[in-house]
Design brief:
Blueprint: H1 6-14, E1 45-46, E2 53-57, E3 79-80, E4 82-84, E5 100-104, E6 125-135, E7 138-143, E8 148-154, E9 158-165, E10 170-176, E11 188-195, E12 201-208, E13 212-222, E14 228-233, E15 248-249, E16 255-258, E17 261-269, E18 274-281, H2 285-293, H3 301-316, E19 319-322, H4 325-338, E20 343-344, E21 351-353, E22 359-361, E23 367-368, E24 370-371, H5 372-375, H6 379-386, H7 389-405, E25 414-416, E26 419-420, H8 429-438, H9 446-457, H10 465-471, H11 482-503, H12 506-516, E27 523-524, E28 529-530, H13 559-562, H14 570-577, H15 580-591, E29 609-610, E30 613-614, H16 626-629, H17 633-647, H18 663-673, E31 675-676, E32 684-687, E33 694-698, E34 704-710, E35 718-724, E36 727-728, E37 733-735, H19 736-740, E38 743-750
Parallel strand pairs: 34-38
Antiparallel strand pairs: 1-2, 2-4, 3-6, 5-10, 6-7, 7-8, 8-9, 9-18, 10-17, 11-12, 11-16, 12-13, 13-18, 14-15, 14-17, 19-33, 20-23, 21-22, 24-25, 25-26, 27-28, 29-30, 31-32, 32-37, 33-34, 35-36, 35-38
Helix pairs in contact: 4-18, 7-8, 8-9, 8-11, 9-11, 11-12
Keywords: Hydrolase, Signal
Signal peptide: 1-20
Protein name: GH92 family glycosyl hydrolase
Length: 771
């Protein structure tokens, strides 16, 4: 519990009867949750949706070995290489780690990172683990090989380092433009360091990584005058992870270019801390300088820390959570993780770099880092409740703007810093746009949005879409992961139909309603699984429903997980399964499956197994709610308790799988409140069961929606009754409109299941075939 501070824990535990509140939601966040195990989060400083994520990098691994270091940080690593300005939060792939800065002492400059097993062999330093502290917007640690107290804070587009050097030590700062997360020789295509007469240092680098040709520009200023500097171009033999190579000293030049640049800045012996202020831009060095000057007064570290803390207090205060202490920490941390990305991408002047690698001007704040295959499910629906409407509109308009300048004319798939990675499947920007528009988020041009959605859904070269449009499914002998692509395309198509219906586009509605039923073309009634078909219409053989292999019939999963992915028409899926009892039996078989003898170690994203339910990866995330569609919501209540207790806790390994830019956290946040968006675009949330005594959603215009619970105990896992605004609620769903209007959803919990609540067919949530 050290990570959130003893005082905060004591406030939670001792403040009176019941489950007491901490005075400040920031104090309830443990930023170290997810930094061990498979969570892949980072502990450094970031503002809500900030462009800069300033965090320590503890290690990296080369091509195909970087999975566990996707955020640049592992909680148990013994050394810190330095502090870089861009990081992913919880992804299953690594990149970034731009503009690494590390403090140095002594008379000799250490140019290479060194070997983790050989202290002093390079610029990496061991650190005092007990000294490592962090909260939203702030991080500090005592380095020991380099005797420096390092502190970090951020604005939206800036990062501030404060280095307190040991008395009498010569103070240096090393800038290493070679460093990257997911590193391999040749990743840096070109870079530049430029020294300005006023002491400003600017530059850029272009990298070939997960996103090809990505450009990052920076501007840097120091609170103390530079008394000496040396620049090295180590391009002759690019060094990696401890291998020392000769460099060429170039300190008589004001601008240096190359593929392996470093600079060391000497400040002599200081009597006060050194503050380094850095801004980044995807546009140019002038944009980075303007970003640098857009925030904060000079080098006032504490002022900027206070501004960012206040921004986090405001962002986290959207929810007032009363729960037992560990749950409270987990939930506020989940909310924190959900508010890190998509991150601001445009400069302070509105310029941004698009997927065409050209600079554009926007009249709104452009965002990037869209992990859409993950986040369309719960992260973006959560943001429609907890983030300001303008922020949601900016995100949607960012997707549409990217489509307008895309060389392919389609919406982003998985993009960051404006560049496309083509990672994962589907065109899941479509449900994000539809969900926000159908919920009434203002500032979205519906016709323009729908046209962008249709463009993505009809781009025949993408992922077997041509065959999907012609045959009604993606054939596995022409396209890998065909079964998954078919069912995910069908759901995306359903959201296009709903958007078109709202806009009165009847022809589009009819066409995409038809395509929304294409999931049936993957259904094998004999095995009662979703399966991949060949172009001749036959199912591919042999068939093994538990097999997981990349490039096979399914995407990061198998038939057990993907056979439940029909969120737009769960009623038809229940019928195809053989009815209510058969559906419940199949769900139980998935959760209770004996995995003895199965080896999924080759599949990095397969984590958090409960039988064949895989909570650590997204295709399973709605499956526990499927019991509701079969008339047994009490079974959902059982499974949710099983999942929450086994997959989440408040330690560094407290996430069972990659947080995936907030999706794992958003699942927990929704589930703890008592409902979940099984079908984004339906404007319904399916009721599960609550895990808090009381959660208040603080809405605009002083409205509040309260979720209150009576009888919440460990052995009271079942809903006895539900009321909405004092009236009995017999249906198993609530609408977005009911939440944003304000009111109270009240649960009464008990030890025995109420088998009649929600069992009636009329009580079940939306399905397109039952409209």
């Amino acid at each position: 519990m050290r990570r959130i501070g003893l005082a905060a824990v004591m406030a939670v535990c001792l403040a009176g009867p019941g489950w007491a509140q901490v005075s400040d939601p920031v104090d309830a966040v443990d930023v170290f949750i997810g930094t061990a195990g498979k969570g892949h989060t980072f502990p450094g400083a970031v503002a809500p949706f900030g462009m800069v994520q300033l965090s320590p990098d503890t290690d990296y691994r080369y091509f195909r070995q970087s999975y566990d270091w996707a955020s640049g940080y592992r909680h148990d690593d013994p050394t810190i290489m330095g502090f870089s300005h861009t990081h992913f939060s919880g992804t299953g792939h690594s990149d970034l780690g731009d503009i690494l800065i590390t403090p140095q002492t002594g008379e000799t400059i250490r140019w290479d990172v060194g070997d983790v097993d050989q202290p002093g062999s390079g610029y990496r330093s061991r650190y005092d683990k007990a000294s490592e502290t962090a909260e939203p917007g702030y991080y500090s640690v005592q380095l020991t090989d380099t005797p420096v107290l390092a502190e970090l804070t951020t604005g939206v587009r800036t990062g501030l380092h404060r280095y307190t050097f040991a008395p009498g030590e010569r103070a240096r700062v090393l800038l290493d433009l070679r460093h990257s997360i997911y590193d391999y020789p040749g990743k840096v295509l070109w870079s530049r360091i430029r020294l300005h007469p006023d002491g400003t240092v600017t530059g850029f680098r272009q990298t070939r990584g997960w996103a090809p040709g990505r450009q990052v520009y920076f501007a840097m200023r120091f609170s103390q005058p530079i008394v000496g500097r040396e620049i090295q171009n180590r391009e002759t033999d690019i060094p990696y992870n401890g291998f020392r190579q000769p460099g060429r000293a170039l300190d008589d030049r004001q601008q240096v270019q190359g593929r392996a640049l470093e600079a060391a800045f000497d400040f002599g012996v200081l009597t006060e801390p050194l503050v380094v202020k850095v801004a980044i831009s995807s546009v140019d060095e002038a944009g980075a300088i303007a970003n640098l000057e857009s925030e904060g007064r000079g080098f006032d570290f504490d002022e900027q820390r206070g501004v960012t803390r206040a921004a986090w207090v405001d962002a986290l205060a959207v929810l007032d959570i009363q729960a037992e202490p560990e749950m409270k920490i987990s939930l506020y941390t989940a909310l924190y993780h959900a508010l890190i990305a998509p991150s601001v991408h445009s400069d302070a002047d509105g310029r941004w770099r698009g997927p065409d690698n050209q600079v554009h001007q926007a009249d709104f704040t452009v965002h990037s880092t869209f992990s859409l295959w993950d986040t369309f499910r719960a992260e973006h629906p959560l943001l429609t409740l907890v983030a300001p409407a303008q922020r949601n509109a900016d995100m949607v308009n960012s997707l549409i703007a990217a489509q307008q300048v895309s060389p392919y004319g389609i919406l982003p798939v998985w993009s960051f810093h404006g560049q496309e990675t083509w990672t994962m499947i589907g065109y899941h920007a479509v449900p994000v746009i539809a969900d926000a528009y159908l919920k009434g988020i203002p500032g979205i041009d519906g016709e323009r949005a729908l046209d962008a959605m249709i463009a993505s859904a009809t781009y025949r070269p993408y992922g077997g879409l041509g065959d999907y449009m012609d045959l009604g499914y993606v054939p596995i002998d022409r396209e890998p992961e065909a079964a998954s692509k078919t069912v995910e395309y069908a759901y995306d198509d359903w959201t296009i139909a709903r958007m078109a219906e709202r806009l009165g586009r009847r022809d589009v509605t009819a066409e995409f309603d038809r395509r929304a039923g294409f999931w049936k073309n993957t259904w094998d009634q004999e095995t009662r699984f979703v399966r991949a078909r060949l172009a001749d219409g036959s199912f591919r053989e042999p068939f093994d429903p538990v097999a997981i292999n990349y490039g096979s019939d399914y995407t990061e999963g198998n038939a057990w997980q993907y056979s439940w992915f029909v969120p737009q028409d769960m009623a038809s899926l229940v019928t195809a399964m053989g009815g209510d009892e058969a559906t419940v039996a199949k769900l139980d078989a998935m959760f209770d499956y004996d995995n003895t003898g199965l080896d999924y170690s080759h599949a990095e994203d397969i984590a958090g197994l409960i039988g064949q339910y895989i909570h650590g990866n997204e295709p399973s995330h709605h499956s526990a709610y499927a019991y509701v569609y079969a008339g047994q919501p009490w079974r959902t209540q059982e499974r949710l308790k099983q999942i929450v207790e086994s997959q989440y806790h408040s330690g560094p390994a407290g996430l069972a799988g990659n947080d995936d830019v907030g999706q794992m956290s958003a699942w927990l946040m929704f589930t703890a409140m008592g409902f979940y968006p099984v079908t984004p675009g339906s404007n319904q949330y399916v009721i599960g069961r609550p895990f808090t005594e009381r959660t208040t959603i603080n809405l605009p215009d002083d409205r509040r929606f309260v979720i209150s619970t009576a009888g919440l105990r460990d052995d009271h896992r079942y809903i006895q009754s539900v009321t909405l605004n004092g009236r009995p609620l017999e249906r198993t769903w609530i609408t977005h409109e009911e939440i944003v209007a304000g009111g109270e959803l009240h649960f009464v919990m008990g030890a025995e299941p109420n088998r009649t609540w929600g069992a009636d067919g009329a009580a079940r949530p939306y399905s397109m075939s039952a409209r």
